[in-house]
Predict the structure.
Amino acid sequence: MFNLLNILSQLHFLSPSNVARLCFAIRRHGVNLMLLFSLTEKTGGQKTALVDHRGTLNYEELHKRCDNLAHQLVERYGIRQGHKVAFFCQNHASFVQGIFAVSRLGAHIYLLNCSMSQRQFNRLVQEHHFDFLIYDEAFRGLIEKSSYQHAKLVSYHDTHESINRLSTSSSRRKEKLTASSSGKIVLLTGGTTGKPKQVIHRPSLFNFLNPFAALLNRLQLPTYNTAYIATPIYHGYGIAVLLSFLALGKKVVMQESFDAKNACALIRKHQVEVVTVVPLMVHKMLKHDQEALGSLACIASGGAKLSPVLVSEVTHHLGNVLYNLYGTSEAGLNIIATPEDLNDHPDTLGKVIPGSQLQVVVDGKEVEPGRIGQFCIRNKWSMKNSPNLWIQTGDIGYRNENGYYFLCGRTDDLIISAGNNIYPTEIEAALCDHPNVEDAAVIGVEDVYAGNILTAYVQLYANQKMTEEALLSWLRTRVAAYQIPREIVFVEELPYTPVGKLDRKRVQSMTRIKG
């Protein structure tokens, strides 16, 4: 109850008239994402809500378009409560309008990874039996080659029926919509490698109070006006921050896919104060035009490990503006590190937010501070299709005596060499401490005698030259003998997934730079 009052106070929503307006909206429309507009209806109607490369919408216009679209989806396509609606879209206003409209109708929302292959999309179609598909034109070919046979609607088109045209069209009958509660929001994780995993979340005001309050308080979001979402909305991190910003009545800037040059230009043009990123995005923007980032007061980094080298670079160039957010698609947001935390511990994930329980577990038992184990999480906002109360994250790390958590890697990244458990991120961090090294990846290569031997793939800064022997000699003074790679391979650039995670499966096939 304290968190609810705290949040409503920060949203300036505690007056009797505002509370009455919220209760009326719930009775009329049900509990769904469209309720967010009742929070901004009186104070934010003419304020800018969304900006993408096609234009700008204020809150009143966005609300009207979402409402129009909900009516059109009912009248033209019969979308109703319980239907499965899949979204195959990049970041843009039509995607946002579609999510709100479908939520208003009580249908289930499936967010598809835009980087999936034809085979992976075919499998999803066969397994989930979607009733309706909203997609970008860029994915038409992939959809037409699949077995999908149900109704679909393109996000943008100048002449054909599309989200952008229906959202601005008046309904033929404009019948009153039945009040309905939001269906499930389903994230299909791992869409670029292996079999996508279904992660189901049920939108609930009370379940998500703690993570929302943590974002408001630790990141001080209510004090800012403009946010740029650089992370994909189809990712759990992306949609969470989008909904948080819109609930606060902020101006949200987005682009369909991340590009460092365009991102820097958007930040400069709109004087963006808050940006959500994965670490690789920050690195690329700093390299491209660090002066364009001068307006940033809060860089919320998540989705991948944050290196101490990047923490130092951001602090040096931009000041104390970097936050580290740790969460998973299955368990949601659970840990936040503030700039002050990162000043003291540049490699920390931070401290657990209120309402979350996190244990470091080995062989099913919680271990003492300082010992490495798997992170297991329990909270009210975790995925709802897990058979267990405690979610095994697959992340390996430890907690220190002061309650700070540190990430060592993934369970499937662990390398066993000559009986030693080796976590590659520790060696990678040591390599990146060298002034000539921009990035590094360490993998295990099967060996008959040792089980695995270590190979490091190293990306040097532009115009830097270095020998394998010199880098190995430098590394020997910084890591244990069993952590020294058998070989160092210099490469042009290391591969990353679209959501900014090192793609270890592609590393081993990379071509060595010829000296």
